[in-house]
Amino acid sequence: MKKIDFTIENVEKIMQNKYAATIIIANRAKGIRENIGDQDDEMRKFKPPVAALKEFLANKLKFPEFNIKKINEED
Questions:
Q1: What is the pLDDT of residues 9-25, one digit of tens each?
Q2: Which structural domain range is residue 29 located in?
Q3: Total-model pTM
């Protein structure tokens, strides 16, 4: 099994809120699992969470509908 080399700082460079990034990555992994044809041929050798993380770190994921302000608001 191959190890993915990344740190939380790599994630925070793309998105400041690491918890929101986790939600985005998890949603993408779910999408990959439900529609396997939705990903590149080279990513098919990885499990969905790993493929989603690699896509996130490569800035391949777009999340315009994600409202980071709503997450940061306190009730």
A1: 888 888 888 888 888 89
A2: 8-61
A3: 0.73
